[in-house]
Automatic annotation (TrEMBL), chains A, B:
Keywords: Polyamine biosynthesis, Transferase. It comes from Gossypium tomentosum. InterPro entries: PABS (IPR030374), PABS_CS (IPR030373), SAM-dependent_MTases_sf (IPR029063), Spermi_synthase (IPR001045), Spermi_synthase_euk (IPR030668), Spermidine_synt_N (IPR035246), Spermidine_synt_N_sf (IPR037163). The active site is at D223. PROSITE patterns: PABS_1, PABS_2. Belongs to the spermidine/spermine synthase family. This is PABS domain-containing protein. One of its GO terms (molecular function) is spermidine synthase activity.
Length: 358, 358
């Protein structure tokens, strides 16, 4: 990335395949801001196809055959959108895998967006990163080997580094641009990469896992994008099989598992698959993350057959973990009380996801 | 309300003080849809100042002195907005107190909006109504007398009616239009008014409470709007004094208490006030409600000096309550596990609200 990072505010051809009209005598409205042309007073400094009138919305836009702009929001959460006011766009580019956007929001700090979907904001990333990391790592005594799938921003690594028992942290992220962008704009998260225990593998996780010795890891954390497009196979049975194979007996998987308000069918499917594969235990937990659709995110947490794991009562509580609080980052969301509470589920979820009923 | 309810889709002068231009030869765009003029393809059927391109957003609009439209979002959550796709607008009018809007959304069912702020949607109202009701009512044995402040949609009443020990339910709602609109569009909630134990008082709660005999109620539930404008005094000390006076010794208050992600100062203030006034105990709990700002809502729950109340371990668990599950409405969110979990607080909240630390 290097020179490109934070290169300013001009609209890139790369974003929508169209340039400006070149007429410098009048202030051109970039094509990606067509939607803003009429309704925005303050579009000049905030040029991106997802930003209208100075607000970012999780929506997708494309041109139909007649060249008319068509707007629809993400198929994972039809009919609703969360918008953030944009102070300035800090970075945008297309990687080999996705569109990468970083902007400064007026109320949630810096925001990382991949393919139009908010991945994290400075204000609320703590909830997701801390929960997806400490739910598994505090559930077993002295975790030593950890694999992170995805997680290129480094936030999960930064949280793992609180655990002094850990000796090896493999991370397999497919998109190098995400890592570079995080190093530039989210240094507090990307500091996770500086931990000497971290071994970075840039590539496809399915491929990576094929070559992992059986039973290598105590813990695997799948910090992936939503299962639309490239991440689709990360919620299918063969992938979970590979994950289970890479875990030692009694090893633990924690997998991002969408919103209990919006995705009960997907949760139901994932739990069915995991109940078949993981013979230890399978649970669902959730946390409040304001900038994720419906304001929550879920975690599927499973253990393989072996030493029993009691997820609901952390055997390795963070409050007693030497060094866990002497970290550059304060723990902002997670504590043992939140750990236990995260497994309490609304009645509708227990009814709709048949394997979650008591 | 009567004839006016659901009267269709024409823009009312009452909404923005401007009529159409009267030129019937061309299809006039109503003034309240100016924002939509350029960007919307489907504005015809969805005419309201908060609806743009067929999407409702929590924002406020007004004309400045030069007649130019000015847009800003609610001062309670600057810099973010949640939007819902609108299928059709079912009702809109101005009461003596506020603008009332009901629309059918494409993914959250019918939505009630007051002064541009979502009050409830059919999909997620369960979380708020069930928690604000059963947190207090399940915390004391055999509650008999209950007061609801606000709550004109009837949802809290519908939840209270699960409790057969209750003998009297007073409700004091200032805006009769909210009650009438709920009867028409949210009959499942408004059914709460049909409970013969309910005694409806239309009027100002501050005034009402002045005339209440000391120690009359076992439980008071304050289901009010956000403390901007008319509801401002409902978060101030004199009002809490009046509430405490109306409770019997060991009686319980449950008060809507905003978002832990957005309003720590307000929560801090409310808790400070209540710690002074309520000598029993004061706790903060929260629930996930996707269509409220930041996806959560909090509850301040307090008891007066008298028989001790252990909010964290419900003495009157709903699972053992005769008749509580033989109700027209299924319990969708609340259960005793969720009750206990709701008092678990993120570390940032305990740090920022000094009286919440362990």
């Amino acid at each position: 990335m290097g020179e490109d990072a934070g290169r300013g505010l001009e609209c890139q051809k790369i974003m929508d395949g169209k340039g400006n009209n070149g007429n410098s005598s009048q202030k051109a409205i970039p094509s990606c801001c067509l939607k803003a042309r009429a309704s925005a007073a303050e579009l000049e400094a905030k040029c991106h196809s997802t930003v209208v009138s100075g607000w970012f919305s999780e929506s997708q836009s494309s041109s139909d055959k007649a060249g008319k702009m068509v707007y629809f929001n993400n198929p994972m959460w039809p009919g609703e959108a969360h918008s953030l006011k944009v102070e300035s766009i800090l970075y945008k580019a297309s990687s080999d895998y996705q569109e990468v956007l970083v902007f400064e929001s007026s109320s949630y700090g810096k925001v990382l967006v991949l393919d139009g979907i908010v991945q994290l904001t400075e204000k609320d990333e703590c909830a997701y990163q801390e929960m997806i990391t400490h739910l598994p790592l505090c559930s077993i005594p002295s975790p030593k080997t950890v694999l992170v799938v995805g997680g290129g921003d480094g936030g999960v690594l930064a949280e793992i580094s609180r655990h002094s028992s850990v000796e090896l942290i493999d991370i397999c992220e497919i998109d190098r641009m995400v890592i570079e962008v995080s190093k530039k704009f989210f240094p507090e998260l990307a500091a996770g990469f500086e931990d000497p225990r971290v071994c970075l593998h840039v590539g496809d996780a399915v491929e990576f896992l094929r070559n992992v010795p059986e039973g290598k890891y105590d813990v695997i954390i799948v910090d992936s994008s939503d299962p639309v497009g490239p991440a689709q196979e990360l919620v299918e049975k063969p992938f979970f099989d590979t994950l289970a194979r890479a875990l030692r007996p009694g090893g633990v998987l924690c997998n991002m598992a969408e919103s209990m308000w919006l995705h009960t069918h997907l949760i139901d499917d994932m739990i069915s698959i995991c109940r078949e594969i993981f013979k230890g235990s399978v649970h669902y937990a959730w946390a409040s993350v304001p900038t994720y659709p419906s304001g929550v995110i879920g975690f599927l947490i499973c253990s393989t057959e072996g030493p029993a794991v009691d997820f609901l009562n952390p055997i390795n509580p963070i409050e007693k973990l030497e060094g866990a609080h002497q970290h550059k980052r304060e723990l902002r969301y997670y504590n043992s009380q939140m750990h236990k509470a995260a497994f309490s589920l609304p009645s509708f979820l227990k009814r709709e996801v048949r394997l979650l009923c008591d």
